[in-house]
Amino acid sequence: MKGETITYIDDYTSAKTDKVPPVIKSVKASNHEISVDDLFRDHHETVYLAAYRVSGKTQDAEDVLQSVFLRLLKRPEPFINIGDDPRRYLCRAAINASFDISRSKKNKPLVSLDEKQHKLEVTQVLSTQGSSIDKDVRQAEQRKQLRAALLQLNSRAAEIFALRYFEEFTNAEIAEIMQSSVTSIGVELHRARGRLRELLSELED
Amino acid sequence: MKDPNSDKIDTLVAAVNADKPSGNDIETAAQRVREKLLKENPTAMIQKKETMSVDDADVHNHEIANSEVVANEQDGSAQKQLNSLQEYIDAIPDYLANRLSPALNLLFEEEARRSIELRRALNDAKQLANQTVKTEPTKTRTSRRFAWAYSAAAAIVLTISFILVSPKFPSFNQSQLAQVEDVSGKLYRLEQGNIHALSAGDWIDGSQVVRTAGDTTAMLVLDDGSRIEVGPRAELQFMRRSHGNRIDVDRGKIIVAASPQGSGTLDVMTEEFVVSVVGTIFEVGHGANGSRVSVIEGEVQVQQRGDSTSVIPGEQFATRMGKKQLGVESNIAWSRNADEYITMLQEVAALQRDIENVLTTEPRYSKRLLNLAPENTVFYGAVPNAPEKIVEIYTVIRERIQQSEIMSKKLDSLEMDEDLSQLDGVINWLAEMGDTLGDETVAALKLVDVASEQQAIPVILSEVDADAFRASFESRLANWKEKNLVSKTSEGSEPANHQPANFDIAIIDDPAQALPNQLSIWLYGDLLIATVGVETIQEIAASIENNGSNFMDSGLYNQLVSYYDDGAKFLGGVDLHSLLGLQEHSAELNAEERSAMDLTGLGNAQYLMVHHSQNSSESNLSAELIFDSERSGVMSWLAEPAPMGSLDFFSINTAFVNASIVKSPKLILDEVKQISGESWDEVSTESEMAVKLSEDLLMSVGGEVAFGFDGPALPTPSWKIVIEVNDETLLQETINQIVNSANSQMSESDKHFEIVPIDLGSYNAYQVSLSIMSNASEAKNTAQVSISYAYLDGYLIATPNAAFLERAINQYHSGIGLLSSQTFQSLIARGGSFDVSALNYSRLDQLLSDLTKSLPKGLSREQHKDFQKIRGENREPSILTLTGHPESIRLTHSGNFFPDISSIMSMQSLAGILLGNEELFNETSENEQETN
């Protein structure tokens, strides 16, 4: 699992933009008292990036970040049910909220504005230069394909896939998060990959 | 062995993981969210609590996707919610008595700043309270022991309101954000896949999706006073924010007259850009060809991927075309205030022209030859830089005329055979002389009255190397004359009909040397003028003297000039009005012929303009049929361009699709009946039912329809039809009645229709089956043909079976459709239209690919090889679009114009292989049934 290094900083805005959150306070350690604000300072980047990887849109990632923490605020006891490791709870909440938002936007392409515009710009440059293949365009297309295919999986399969491959939790960790068995998670991941292969093949052809 | 598709998934995962926003973006977003959270509930946000390790079973809560926020009191008392204006008004007493929590107090004050109604109610309440205080001077004083708490709360509120106001977040209250001022046509609100009609006075809440039907415009007023004029087939939603509202345009066009926004901005967003304004008038459109903003007054800022562009009046910024200064007038012509806006723009344009005159440069293409075309020219063809192309154009035109019955008849009636023969001769000569001709060659036909009959006089104009031409031409002419003389002598008879005996060709140095029945080629400086007869060449000589001909005053000239302004390549223009004279001859038509002509709507066709450009990799054709008044008859059926939601149901791998928007089907039927003089009263009682059903059917559907092939081609072609639906209930009832009616009529036959609902999630879906029973043997056999369809977001989607239907719906929800296809986008962008009225998109390579994937199992190795060879050939996709404007129809074509010979041969061999293996299809069909 990612994020095992514990680093404390004073200003959360100085956090590095890496997939691994630089600030992980162990909430479990000695049951010390924390606030939602502390949780936000520590994990906003984790939540934002988990949401972005699913939706591909910065605006949606921001909405998810807000939604996840708003929900915590609205609870009488914010830290009930978040488990020993808040990152697990927050990643799962972010992934599900992102999938929900993406599914609710029926008519809108899943490619982010940034991606789409980037692709257009690259295409325009390429067309003027006479080139036909470009790595960035190809990668944008790949991201678009995978996100579109994920939306066509059932919600549990999509969630497990995102936890495993986007957030890089182990099968055992996912089993704990999902309150399932490791074997069951392994089977569901295998099926999810199989279904994705079919969907991607359709998209490709 | 490792599965290559597994690698593929890993590659895609790596691509997703490699993509991340910048650290600055994340932290900026986090700051905004944190401020919002603090504003929402500062106490809960900063209060430290002990963590509790319990299960996390309720993590998956779909409600968190819903961004609607409800402010709650969390002090243990009854929860108070502020979602609507009424709830705010109800909360006034609590606000005045300082009984609201800090968060709600802040929320209330924020709303009071924004809402005139709330402010008014608050003022009334304060006045009432003052009066009450005056009349009840002995009111109980607030307990002093709570005074410190109120002071602290007020201090917190003030502090938070200064620190934590975040301009870009949705407000708590999204109710009654916009109001419908008036609607011309049909305005809908979309809710859970269903549509609900809106009318003047209705309120629209934030995040509700609003859609206009075709031929509809609506005026909406936002709570900040901004006025939004919504064009046909548009879809949009609003969001209330602390500092300025936000409008999301999913498709279509809107014109925004933004009120002054104070310190905030009104943001209009599409999928491709954000337009921010503080008070101005501008148009935003979003369609198949990207997003566009056209500014009428003021200035707007357009943001695309971090880049900001300023757009001023008269300018247009389109995401795929950049910024330019053309076309704004036509963009806003749909508006009910178009005249006002256009006048405004013309003033700006006049200023820009003055500036351009100061900075004037040489035109891209010279109009020297165009200006010399003779008066009454009815056909003009120009081929810059490639004189020999005239021959090809002429040949194509002759072929097209021959294929057109109406044009052939007209030409026959003009008795122009002799003239055309002469023109043929001229064209043949030009083909030989091409090398000596200059940068541009023009072929024109001048219409003249000779003894009350109209004749067409051909004219060739070109820049030329006179000496080289003379040397080459005279030698060829001598050879030709000698050959002709030999031919006449040896045959002892008159020459062939196409070359009259008394016809001659001569190079002349003075127009006075021109003779009747002679093709005179006058070389004047670097100009070549070739024509038949005397008058025309003398007219052109006068035009050279006067630096231009009377043709320059004609409408056809004005049409042609605009092409030269933009850079003409292969250009053709026909004055249909003069050439065909349909209007002049309409008096000679009988009632039936006049009715037929009215129905075609071609009676008022005035000009046909064709322009073709060919680059190394791009072929683009545009044609425009221009009318002298508003389109009528069949020509008017094509609706004005608008976004096509039906294309969202087609995937990026669609092999072929036809989509179009026509006027309301009911209006078309009424128009046909009106033209043909048919009346409902004349309908027999027997067919009354059918008429009623037809009417209901046409009333329940909209004007948008798309048909295409999207998926496997064999054994069941994966066709798909998408039809716009105005009234789902009426349409379904009508379909039920049609099925019942058909069954009652076929009660004696062995055919039977059945319509049954099918389970497709939350969608209303049905399957219509036609069973055909046969008694060929003792046992009864039943063959069944079926169609599955469903209703979704105002469309009916029909496919051959439920599996395809489900795939189409998933495709729609995935949001990655044909409109996202890079190939599609690049092709449609070449046409230059923002939206279109109809399109045909075809990918022969995709169709062959689909066929290859669906190959029957029993094909031989050689046949498989043939298929692979066919599939491997490179074929460019193509798109043809039609754009209907009030007085014209424009056609554009990009991509392969005609299939190349190898493609045709490939298709032939494909058909040969498939048709020669009929039994293989039976086998495949059986396999498919087993699979199902």
Structure description:
The complex is a heterodimer of chains A (205) and B (932). Chain A has 8 helices and 1 strand; from the N terminus they run βαααααααα. The two termini of chain A are 36 Å apart. Chain A is mostly helical. Chain B is of the alpha+beta class. Helix content of chain B is 38%, strand content 27%. Chain B has a 19-stranded mixed beta sheet, sandwiched between helices. Chain B has a 17-stranded mixed beta sheet that branches. In chain B, a hairpin with a 4-residue loop joins strand 26 (605-614) and strand 27 (619-627). The longest helix of chain B has 26 residues, at 466-491. Chains A and B meet through strand 1, helix 1, helix 2, helix 3 and helix 4 of A and helix 1, helix 2, helix 3, strand 1 and helix 23 of B.
Strand portion of chain B, in percent? 25-35%
Instruction: Report, as a whole number of angstroms, the end-to-end distance of chain B.
Output: 31 Å
The major β-sheet of chain A equals: none
Structural class based on helices, strands and sheet pairing of chain B: alpha+beta
List the defining traits of the structure above.
heterodimer; A: mainly alpha; B: alpha+beta; 19-stranded mixed sheet; 28 helices; disordered C terminus
Task: Set down the secondary structure blueprint.
The complex is a heterodimer of chains A (205) and B (932).
Chain A: E1 33-34, H1 36-55, H2 58-74, H3 86-104, H4 113-129, H5 135-151, H6 155-166, H7 171-178, H8 182-204
Helix pairs in contact in A: 1-2, 1-3, 2-3, 3-6, 5-8, 6-8, 7-8
Chain B: H1 4-18, H2 23-40, H3 42-46, E1 49-50, H4 85-90, H5 92-96, H6 102-114, H7 116-135, H8 147-163, E2 178-184, E3 187-191, E4 194-198, E5 203-204, E6 209-212, E7 217-222, E8 227-230, E9 235-239, E10 246-257, E11 266-269, E12 274-277, E13 281-287, E14 290-297, E15 300-304, E16 307-311, E17 316-318, E18 322-324, H9 328-331, H10 338-358, E19 377-384, H11 389-403, H12 405-414, H13 417-433, E20 437-450, E21 453-464, H14 466-491, E22 504-508, E23 518-524, E24 527-532, H15 535-545, H16 555-566, E25 570-575, H17 576-580, H18 582-585, H19 591-600, E26 605-614, E27 619-627, E28 656-661, H20 665-676, H21 688-700, E29 701-709, E30 719-725, H22 728-745, E31 751-758, E32 764-774, E33 781-792, E34 795-799, H23 802-814, H24 822-831, E35 838-842, H25 844-853, H26 861-872, E36 878-885, E37 888-895, H27 901-915, H28 918-931
